[in-house]
Amino acid sequence: MRSLYDLYPDFDVDVAAEREALLRADVVVWQCPFYWYGMPALLHQWIEKVLAHGWAYGAGGTAVRGKTALWATTTGAPAPAFEAGQMHGHHFEAFVPAISQTAVFCGMRWAGPPFVVHGAHRVNDDELRDAAERYRERLDALVDGTGGSRRAGGTDA
Q: Cβ distance 75 to 95 under 8 Å?
């Protein structure tokens, strides 16, 4: 796992290092909180700089093609807040396409649906353990589904 905020507190992403890490990984996990209906600023910047034209997409951009991408996220609101007519006005799934399409646009295999823990700051210890176990099972399934020889890499914003 690579914590972007630990690596780049100044937001000066080392593109070469991040691309090297991506080349070694077969499973890429974008793990971050859900902020203002998307990814946090540093992960968004990481995507803009690292997954650039000619490297991740476009003419000659095949570096991440075929890799598996998963989005693991947390929300501050409970799941019912992501229903039509509620606080956020849409089901959570309505916010997924911008992130899933990023992976698909780069030729990655989208491992949807995303792994989501709603109301993360309100979960009790038992709920947290359950979520952690479900997350581990999801990651294990991604790795095992590729013949067991692939490494899971991740970007933790």
A: no
